[in-house]
Amino acid sequence: MKDLILKVLGFAKQRPLACLVGIFLMGCISMAAMHVVEAHFPEMSCSPCHGMETYVDGYYHDDLMSHSHMEAGVACIDCHDNGMIDKLNETYWYVTDDFDNPPQQRAFDNEMCTKCHKVEDIVAKTNYDGKNPHDSHLGDLVCSDCHYSHEKSKAKCMECHNFEFLQNLPPEWAKKGEQK
């Protein structure tokens, strides 16, 4: 093994540019491979280190919103993509055993949802006899105030009100997140 290390170091001294190009190419190939694994096999990428089995199970086998996203072809990393610096940091934290398990919950703004869902379509689809849960007196709510991807969704207005139209929401609401 020592001989191999000496040969590699000797090569690096003679051809430093070739070594840098090789390291760069290996890094690019590794990142591309990691992206493919994250996009198609979430149980093999984040889950083993972060204790996310319940989230992955919900993505594949549950009535949660994450499963409806899976059915629509939306991969976990479409919403939870980390950049190169994040991946390097997480690798360092894992190697040094200095990470949160489970990871801290992330907060997403409405832009995350409206990349794919048009607000006008949502408001039109959720008009119940002139009442609309998306027309709130609370001001600007965040989609995740009511819609949870990895646990049962809950209409925020039910915290104070008992509107009849919320008691009789259409089946797709119940399927994607019944009240707790």
Q: In which range does the helix fraction lie?
A: 40-55%
User: What oligomeric state do the depicted chains represent?
Assistant: single chain
Q: What is the residue-mean pLDDT, rounded to a whole number?
A: 78
How much beta, percentage-wise?
under 5%
Number of strands: 0
Our Rg estimate from Cα atoms comes to: 23 Å
The shape, in one word, is elongated
- Along the chain, the helix and strand elements come as HHHHHHHHHHH
User: How is the biggest beta sheet arranged?
Assistant: none
Number of helices: 11
Question: Which residues form runs of ≥5 with pLDDT under 50?
Answer: none
Structural class of the helix and strand makeup? mainly alpha
Distance between the termini: 59 Å
Provide the fold topology.
Elements: H1 2-14, H2 16-40, H3 47-50, H4 53-61, H5 65-71, H6 76-80, H7 84-95, H8 110-114, H9 119-125, H10 164-167, H11 171-176
Helix pairs in contact: 1-2, 4-5
Give a nutshell description of this structure.
With 180 residues, the chain is mainly alpha-helical. The protein contains eleven helices and no strands.
Overview of the molecule:
The chain is mainly alpha-helical. It contains eleven helices and no strands. The chain has helices spanning 2-14, 16-40, 47-50, 53-61, 65-71, 76-80, 84-95, 110-114, 119-125, 164-167, 171-176. α1 packs across α2. The longest helix has 25 residues, at 16-40. The radius of gyration is 23 Å and the shape is elongated. The N and C termini lie far apart (59 Å). The model has no long low-confidence stretch (mean pLDDT 78).
